[in-house]
Amino acid sequence: MRLFSLIVVLVLTTGTAFSDPLPSWNADEAKARILAFVDAVTDPKSEDYVTPAERIAVFDNDGTLWAEKPVYFQLLYALDRLKQKAEADPSILTSDTLKAAAAGDLEKVAESGEDGLLEIVMVSHSGLTVDEFQKDVAEWLETARHPTKQMAYTDMTYQPMLELLRHLRDNGFTTYIVSGGGLHFMRAFAEEAYGIPPEQVIGSTGKTRYEVVDGVPTILKDPGIAFVDDKAGKPVAIDSRIGRLPIFVGGNSDGDFQMLEWATSAEGPRLGVLVHHTDDQREWAYDRDSHVGKLERGLEEGPGRGWILIDMAKDWNRVWSGAAN
Amino acid sequence: MRLFSLIVVLVLTTGTAFSDPLPSWNADEAKARILAFVDAVTDPKSEDYVTPAERIAVFDNDGTLWAEKPVYFQLLYALDRLKQKAEADPSILTSDTLKAAAAGDLEKVAESGEDGLLEIVMVSHSGLTVDEFQKDVAEWLETARHPTKQMAYTDMTYQPMLELLRHLRDNGFTTYIVSGGGLHFMRAFAEEAYGIPPEQVIGSTGKTRYEVVDGVPTILKDPGIAFVDDKAGKPVAIDSRIGRLPIFVGGNSDGDFQMLEWATSAEGPRLGVLVHHTDDQREWAYDRDSHVGKLERGLEEGPGRGWILIDMAKDWNRVWSGAAN
User: Fold this and answer.
1) Number of helices and strands in chain A (H, E)
2) Do B232 and A209 touch (CB under 8 A)?
3) Do A258 and B210 touch (CB under 8 A)?
4) Complex ipTM
């Protein structure tokens, strides 16, 4: 009998361990609703069945798939590179924002708002080929460490969201990033970090140009913005890039409001989820008053629209993908 | 013996019929090189082997996948719709080009060049939602007939190119359209006509806008151009949308030169093909002096760059996908 019991326990334990696709999610309503949604749209006998081609899932990046505090990680990269560039040629610092950025004054940078951030990113990112830029980002990510957590940035992706991405793909979904972050910046790590290939990364874009340089055809990054993939820009980008209405949308801020609104207003089974940053122990706690990842309208209207507010402190038993948890 | 011979003949005949993926291509050099390329990149033992994820094939549309004479079919749609709109409100005809277009004066329209065409397209295509627009294009394609061939436009896709697209996909390629034609115009028929889903259609784009109209989230087509996907714009769009260098590129005009140049200059196995319109019996014969599909630089430099010039009259035993051949 004792041997029999042991076998039963082993089978049950192993069975549970193998069959839970979201082990970093606590067994509560958020997890249950997500799993039920995926089950429904993949069950050919369900009235909510959706063909694989239409199983489009889109996710914001900053604050949804990885952290975004104290500021967007791309901005920290930009500040590093701007500083280097300004040391070689101080004349590139043509505004107070750029001067503050090169001096590492994060507070003043934050005050400059979205326009200031874009200015910094554009000045620091231009003048390279796309290949050179992506290589430089990848190198930076290998050595740079978060200013307070001291972690590698790619260890600051959220383990529960990695599990969710994988679970969706295992069930025939195509997973896209739709982020205000830079397209080429995100491509430098998205495939390794998230399993999301370059053609499924949608982001803000700087101007680029095709030119044959010394006999070599090249895509060059120019100064200037081509497209800002935020707020009402997100539905526009999804239409332009994918041409299908997503059935699963993940975000964390009011910059994601329109894409959740657009996708979940349509007929058929659709799910919107918002990561609510409630965990000032393991991560950060912020919403309405944050200068990055501000979440106000989503908090107020989300539940009424059927969106899931993911309570990070309560719903996740593990936060970081990296070892330091 | 006679029975045995018959069986051998049957087996050989059936074998050939089933095993030729490009039956509308005559057995000559163009066909042999295309088949050899696909064999090489898909054979794991070949030194030219390419992983499925990197098997990206891109094709121009007008003049490459379907015909483009006497003018781009999208322009014929635009003229139809402009005429309708102008009957309801003549004040929209704010330029000589638009007046000529509404009067059906194709010659004057052609003289207005690329800028004129874009003006006509933008005025005639704006003011609808993307959904309404794509539905309208699909309806037009069902009833409209080509001015001289009297064929449905979707019957004027090239059967040999449909076979090539299918052969590539059967061998793990992802096939994209990369065309100067309008993104939403092409999406209205690309999946049915070519088996190319919306997320693999890349084209020129007009401005669009997200707005909640009477409570319904909507993507609206505005006047104005967002991006022209032609010439040096094609590599830029491929980088932005796909983020991988294609290994197979098909085009037919100098508008495709840069994307062939970019893709085939890089290391590794890569193939560029140009459809050369040499068939004034079944289709049309034109190259250097044509106002649509002008092919000059490609003719001169293509062979030296290893590109295949597909001689439509000689290489194809069938042209149209539609019944009338």
Assistant:
1) 13, 8
2) yes
3) yes
4) 0.92
Residue A130 has pLDDT above 60, yes or no: yes
**What distance in Å separates residue A56's CA from the closest CA in chain B?**
11
User: DSSP characters for B188-217?
Assistant: HHHHHHHS--GGGEEEEEEEEEEEEETTEE
Phi first, then psi: give them for residue A94, nearest 5 degrees.
-90, 0
Residues of A in contact with B187 (CB under 8 A): 243
Q: Which amino acid is at B270?
A: R
Nearest residue of B to residue A264 by CA position?
Answer: B217
Nearest chain A residue (CA) to B198: A243
Instruction: Report the DSSP pairing between strands A285-286 and A271-278.
Output: antiparallel
Question: Which tokens in the block code for residue A317?
Answer: 């038993």
Q: Distance between CA B269 and CA B51 in Å, rounded?
A: 12
* B174 → chain A, closest CA residue: A199
Radius of gyration of chain B, Cα coordinates, nearest whole angstrom: 21
Of B209, B234, B242, the CB nearest to A236: B209
For residue A209, CA distances in Å to A218, B133, B237 come to 8, 30, 10
- In this prediction, residue A13 carries a pLDDT of 47
- CA distances (Å), A103 to each of A14, A82, A93, A251, B36, in order? 54, 9, 11, 32, 58
Q: Is B244 left (phi over 0), alpha (psi -120 to 50) or beta?
A: beta
> Do residue A210 and residue B262 have CB atoms under 8 angstroms apart?
yes
Q: Are B177 and B196 in contact (CB under 8 A)?
A: yes
A145 touching B, CB under 8 A? Answer: no
- Per-residue tokens: A133: 């830029």
Across the range B303-318, mean pLDDT stands at 98
- φ, ψ for residue B294 (rounded to 5)? -60, 125
Q: Per-residue pLDDT averaged across A15-38, rounded?
A: 89
Q: What is the CA radius of gyration of chain A?
A: 21
Q: What region does A60 belong to: left with phi over 0, alpha with psi -120 to 50, or beta?
A: beta
Q: Which of B199, B231, B245 to mutate to test the interface with A (most CBs of A within 10 A)?
A: B199
What average pLDDT score do residues B202-225 get? Answer: 95
Taking the Cβ of residue B211 and every Cβ of chain A, the question of whether any pair is shorter than 8 Å is answered with yes
In terms of CA atoms, which chain A residue is nearest residue B205? A240
Q: Is B94 helix (H, G, I), strand (E, B) or coil?
A: coil
How many residues comprise chain A? Answer: 325
> What is the residue-wise DSSP string for A66-99?
B---SS-HHHHHHHHHHHHHHHH-GGG--SHHHH
Q: Is A150 helix (H, G, I), strand (E, B) or coil?
A: coil
Go through A154-177 and write b for each residue having 16 or more CB atoms within 10 A of its CB, e for each that does not.
Answer: bbbbbbbbbbbbebbeeeebbbbb
The band of B140, judged by pLDDT with boundaries at 50, 70 and 90, is: very high
Q: Is B267 on the interface with A (CB under 8 A)?
A: no
Spatial separation of the C-alpha atoms in residues A263 and A271, rounded to whole Å: 8
Q: Mean pLDDT throughout B207-235?
A: 95
